[in-house]
Design a protein that fits this description.
The complex is a heterodimer.
Chain A (H helix, E strand, L loop, with lengths): L1 H19 L4 H21 L21 H32 L40
Chain B lengths: L2 E3 L2 H13 L2 H4 L4 H27 L3 E9 L4 E7 L1 H24 L6 H20 L3 H19 L6 H32 L4 H4 L3 H5 L4 H15 L8 H4 L5 H10 L1 H11 L1 H4 L3 H23 L4 H22 L2 H32 L10 H4 L1 H15 L5 H14 L9 H24 L17 H19 L1 H17 L16 H18 L1 H10 L5 H23 L4 H22 L14 H19 L4 H21 L3 H22 L12 H26 L7 H12 L4 H9 L1 H26 L2 H7 L14 H24 L7 H19 L1 H7 L4 H21 L9 E4 L7 E4 H30 L35
Parallel strand pairs in B: 1-2
Antiparallel strand pairs in B: 2-3, 4-5
Helix pairs in contact in B: 1-3, 1-5, 3-4, 3-5, 4-5, 4-12, 4-17, 4-22, 4-23, 5-6, 6-7, 7-10, 10-13, 10-15, 12-17, 13-16, 15-16, 15-21, 16-17, 16-21, 17-19, 17-20, 17-22, 17-23, 19-21, 19-22, 20-21, 20-22, 20-24, 21-24, 22-23, 27-31, 28-29, 29-30, 30-37, 30-40, 32-33, 33-34, 34-39, 34-40, ...
The chains are: A mainly alpha, B mainly alpha.
């Protein structure tokens, strides 16, 4: 059981990390969702696994699973909804305002360029680059 | 030493901070009221202090202890002894005079309320340093002085010099403060306590510490930067850009003396060791010489005084470094004397500046005729600074020379006496220059403004100080003798029997050195013009330019590094971050030792295998098809469902219910958003890029899997036994998870619902911002890519959701009510109710439904947080801390006896917040949809057989308007 859960947690982490390294907002959102699953499961597992021992006090029952990680994970699940919702709206807003759903401001020189309709976003005039500091120091 | 406990000690420390609240308000009443409001706090603190002084006089110590975090050694402990009394008197006494002086000094354009607020903050911080018994608390006050002095030095924000001076002071003293924290932690560790009262008795333990050298160096770095000791002396003159009251207060009486205070305070622990002598005495000696030499040739009055301060601080530091009790006594005496004459000198310089509108010595001279009172005060105090008999500066200088006369440095008996005499000579020279070039000489006609003596209020403070200079100078033993003994006892922690302070000691070596210094000073003054030519011709290192260059270098280098890491490519940064995290984990693994886990495993059953395979398959599928966004949403739903099944299987029913409901609302939200996003992700990463990412991801996955495995196969200690045992008797519920949420860890939950509420409001605000501007125009002209279904609001769905509505709401209430004892509770109930409402919106369209369900979702969030908060506050009335729940059993006749806990009200707050947050998020997205000209239907379903005759040709289109209506 422990091995299976470890595999599940690891795989979802790998998938999440791969997706947050993609360049479109939607992939990143899905990636964080996957990471959320694995992180929540990991936190939950820190209370160790127990079968048929719910943390509901019942007279005569001796063994219970650890309730504390459960309480922490419960709020984490709800908060992650809030986080996802904010991320989704930011992604949506960025796309509506700028017509692109990239998360990078600059282009990776090694990337393929398959979308000719894109805005030439490597010469963004709003990107100041490395600016020399101006006076008034010290 | 006997101790007395007295709570007013804490009050003294608090009074300046209380006083800081008023000037900002009182300035509306008037400038006098503003100054008075600052003055009363200082005065009351001073009076309270004086009441304590009788106790100190008897050689006792006043302490007051407030335990805060005793396990960390962090307590609000206050302590007042002779040394603390001396400094507290200086801080409050000089502070009072400065408040008076500043009232007349500041012009109408200067924001006076601000000034007094900063001043009182600074005063409080200084007082905190000298009254702290806990060295960690002292460090906090130490940092506070750095911050508040930054505000004071930069008070004239419009001047470039003020801003730069403030920044430099903050950089130097702030860095010193950081070093000090390190040193104090080492010291506390070595002594086994962070309380000064204990540390002062642990000399052997501290000196035996293997970290003695770094500890002492770090502490001294803090003291040297604060007291402007070489090579950190450069910030002090630049801080002179501040208004004169600030300079007088910070740089004569208080801030720079904090470093001295620290060295005096720790004197019993470190003094007498070689390390202490060579570090402290040498630094002091160099500082004394360098500061005095520069001061001679400064033309700016305040710069001259600033460098002279540097020099005198060096003198005191040197005395403390000598490590003998006589030298420490001399140091204490010079602290008193220097404070008195230097504060007065700064004030006279301020008066000259105020009246003549220049501080340049080259443009002054002959002022004794025009400003006789100011001239008299300045001459008296300058002669004291020069060290002439019958003024207080003479006495402590004699003591210093006496000590220097028999101190040898690395076996050389001449070095220290000669250099000390030279220091005295320089000191005399600049004092004579201050008198000769400003007040004596012929009267001039080209002053920028015609000077005359200021009003009484302005010269009252320096006059009082000048009077003290003379009185102490003539009858020292009667005035300060006894007090000095008390202070010296406190510094050395011994019972000293000091010689009586006398003006005439006979023909001693010190008198000879003094005579040489005075005559030499006169000679320098006489040959000033040729000497100045030589001075100007010699190249000097410019500390400010070096400091600027260093700051510039750091700025450029670090800027380049961080701009390379954060170059606008989030993916690059995330890749670096991910790789670094994995590498750190690997390092921790390789550098540690491991034994295999011994915890008994749970054997998996067939169902477990099936679930795992499903989850693996769906995750793999997400990876494979992640470009097809709609498909990914379906697949990620599988992950969410299996995760909730895992929770069910592993005894976490609450989590399973939460996960499954959150999954539903998240998917709806993402679907709504995807409507406006591209439906497909193009393949645009190169093969190498993808393999790099896959490597990082794979490594991260392996690492996390290994970590989880290691975690789960080991036994552990948990604090949950307590929760399980106390949930029913103390929290009144059997569902321990819920009791933890609403009771034991209620504070966390309270914070979390606030976060959730803020997230929802943020979404709403973002959507509001999108509604005007580019995005809005784009939405208004939206071209729908996909064709809509002809039957968007199907009959069956509308009817089914209508019928389910009461049932699902009831389920929500049921889950809410049983939450305290069985799986459920506010979070889950809130999600269930939100889903019940969402079903209505989905069936008949958001606009149609929200016309009928008119809940203000923002208010839900507000009420939720309020109810939870009020429930928590309710515990106060029962005499319990915030959020302690109470419960009792209620018996209503038709129902069985049930219990009612205040936790229920708290859970109601959680419930309302969750409903409000979820609905507000979805509502915001739906408003975007309506902006695109989404139609709003008139009737709940598109085809209603009860109203439309199916045989009639072309029935009415179920559309009311287009475009969003607000």
């Amino acid at each position: 059981m422990e091995a299976l859960l470890a595999i599940v947690i690891g795989l979802q982490t790998a998938g999440g990390v791969y997706l947050i390294l993609r360049r479109r907002t939607f992939s990143v959102i899905i990636g964080t969702a996957l990471l959320t699953y694995s992180v929540n499961l990991f936190l939950f597992a820190s209370g160790r696994l127990a079968i048929d021992m719910p943390p509901i006090y019942t007279p005569g029952v001796e063994n219970y699973t650890d309730p504390l990680p459960q309480a922490l994970v419960l709020t984490a699940i709800v908060i992650s909804f809030g986080m996802t919702a904010v991320a989704v709206l930011i992604a949506l807003g960025a796309y509506l305002e700028s017509d692109i759903d990239h998360i990078d401001l600059r282009r990776d020189p090694n990337d393929l360029d398959l979308d000719p309709d894109e805005i030439p976003w490597e010469q963004d005039p709003r990107d100041p680059g490395l600016e020399a500091p101006k006076g008034d120091f010290g | 030493m006997t101790e007395q406990s007295d709570a007013t000690l804490a009050l003294i420390a608090a009074l300046p901070f209380i006083g800081a609240l008023f000037p900002g308000l009182m300035i509306r009443v008037g400038r006098n009221a503003c100054a008075l409001s600052a003055g009363w706090a200082t005065l009351s603190a001073l009076i309270l202090l004086m009441i304590h002084s009788t106790v100190i006089w008897r050689g006792e110590v006043v302490v007051y202890r407030i335990d805060w975090m005793p396990m960390l050694g962090l307590n609000a402990n206050f302590r007042l002894d002779g040394l603390g009394l001396l400094f507290a008197m200086m801080i409050l006494g000089i502070g009072l005079l400065i408040i008076l002086y500043a009232r007349f000094y500041l012009s109408r354009e200067d924001p006076m309320g601000q000034f007094y607020t900063y001043l009182m903050l600074f005063q409080g911080a200084m007082l905190g340093i000298v009254l702290s018994d806990n060295i960690l608390m002292m460090v906090i006050f130490w940092e506070l002085t750095s911050l508040s002095s930054f505000l004071l030095i930069g008070y004239w924000k419009h001047t470039r010099a003020g801003r730069q001076g403030a920044r430099m002071a903050l950089a130097v003293t702030g860095l010193g403060g950081l070093a000090l924290i390190g040193g104090m932690l080492l010291l506390g560790n070595a002594a086994g306590s962070y309380d000064l009262s204990v540390i002062l008795t642990k000399r052997e333990e501290v000196l035996a510490s293997p970290y003695l050298a770094p500890m002492l160096i770090l502490i001294l770095l803090g003291a040297f930067t604060k007291s402007a000791q070489f090579p950190f002396q450069f910030w002090l003159p630049h801080a002179m850009a501040a208004p004169t009251p600030v300079s007088a207060y910070l740089h004569s009486a208080t801030m720079v003396k904090a470093g001295l205070f620290l060295m005096a305070r720790l004197w019993p622990v470190f003094a007498g060791t070689d390390l202490w002598f060579y570090l402290v005495a040498t630094t002091g000696l160099i500082t004394m010489l360098v500061g005095a030499k520069i001061a001679i040739f400064k033309d700016d009055l305040k710069a001259l005084l600033a460098y002279s301060t540097v020099s005198h601080l060096g003198l005191i530091t040197m005395l403390l470094g000598f490590g003998t009790t006589a030298a420490a006594t001399a140091a204490a005496f010079h602290i008193i004397n220097h404070t008195i004459f230097k504060a007065a000198l700064f004030m006279t310089a301020g008066i000259v500046d105020h009246e003549a509108h220049t501080r340049s010595i080259k443009r002054l001279g002959g002022l004794r005729v025009l400003m006789p009172i100011t001239a008299t005060l300045a001459i008296i105090t300058s002669l004291s600074m020069a060290g002439l008999p019958f003024f207080n500066g003479f006495l402590s200088k004699e003591l210093m020379l006496e000590e220097a006369a028999h101190t040898s440095w690395l076996g050389n008996p001449w070095l220290v006496p000669v250099l000390a005499t030279l220091g005295g000579l320089f000191s005399a020279a600049y004092s004579f220059r201050y008198i000769g070039h400003v007040f004596l000489g012929p009267e001039r006609t080209d002053y920028p403004s015609h000077p005359h003596d200021p009003p009484f209020g302005m010269w009252a403070a320096p006059a009082l100080l000048a009077a003290m200079v003379v009185v102490i100078g003539v009858i020292p033993q009667a005035v300060v003798g006894g007090f000095l003994n008390v202070v010296a006892d406190a510094i050395t922690q011994e019972h000293l029997h000091l010689h009586k302070l006398k003006i005439w000691h006979g023909f001693t070596p010190a008198l000879g050195m003094s005579a040489i210094a005075t005559l030499g000073g006169l000679a320098v003054f006489y040959f000033f013009t040729p000497l100045e030519r030589i001075w100007v011709a010699t190249p000097k290192p410019d500390a400010k330019r070096m400091f600027d260059a260093l700051v510039m270098f750091l700025h450029r280098t670090l800027g380049r590094i961080s701009n390379n890491l954060h170059d606008g490519r989030l993916t690059k940064f995330l890749a670096i971050f991910g790789a670094t995290t994995v590498a750190l984990g690997l390092f921790a693994y390789v550098s540690g030792s491991h034994t295999p886990g011994t915890r008994e495993m749970i054997a998996p059953t067939l169902v477990d295998y099936i679930g795992t395979i499903l989850l693996i398959a769906s995750t793999m599928a997400i990876m494979n098809y992640h470009r097809s966004r709609l498909l990914v949403l379906v697949l990620i739903g599988i992950n969410g469902l299996i995760v909730s099944v895992i929770f069910v299987r592993l005894s976490a029913p609450d989590l399973a219910m939460t996960q499954v409901t959150v999954e539903v609302v998240t998917l709806i939200l993402m679907l709504l958003a995807l409507h406006f996003l591209p439906k497909h992700t193009p393949r645009e990463s190169s093969w190498s890029r993808r393999s790099r990412d896959a490597t990082i991801a794979g490594a991260a996955g392996l690492a996390v899997a290994a970590l989880s495995w290691a975690l789960m196969t080991r036994d552990f200690e948990t604090i949950s036994g307590y929760y399980l045992k106390h949930a029913k008797p103390d929290g009144g519920g059997t569902n321990v998870v819920n009791v933890i949420l609403v009771d034991f860890r209620g504070y966390d939950t309270f914070g979390e619902i606030i976060v959730l509420g803020i997230a929802a409001l943020l979404i709403f605000a973002l959507e509001e911002a999108l509604m005007d501007g580019r995005a809005s125009r784009k939405l208004a002209n939206w071209i729908h890519e996909m064709r809509y279904s002809k039957d968007r609001h199907p009959l069956m769905m509308v009817v089914a959701t209508r019928m389910m509505m009461p049932t699902s709401l009831m389920v929500g209430v049921y889950i809410f009510l049983r939450g305290h004892n069985d799986p459920g509770g506010g979070f889950i109930a809130g999600l269930v109710v939100a889903i019940a409402l969402l079903m209505q919106y989905m069936a008949s369209g958001f606009a149609w439904a929200s016309d009928r369900i008119q809940f203000p979702y923002h208010a839900f969030i507000g009420w939720g947080v309020l109810i939870a908060g009020i429930t928590g506050i309710g515990a106060w009335f029962n005499g319990f801390p915030f959020l302690t729940s109470d419960f009792g059993y209620v018996h209503l006749p038709p129902i069985e006896e049930f219990e009612l806990a205040t936790a229920m009200a708290f859970d109601l707050g959680v419930f309302l917040t969750v409903v409000g947050a979820v609905m507000l998020a979805i509502y915001s997205l739906s408003r975007i949809a309506r902006r695109t000209g989404e139609s709003v239907n008139v009737s709940p379903m598109d085809y209603d057989p009860s109203t439309v005759d199916p045989f009639e040709e072309g029935h009415v289109r179920n559309v009311r308007t287009t475009g969003e209506e607000r």
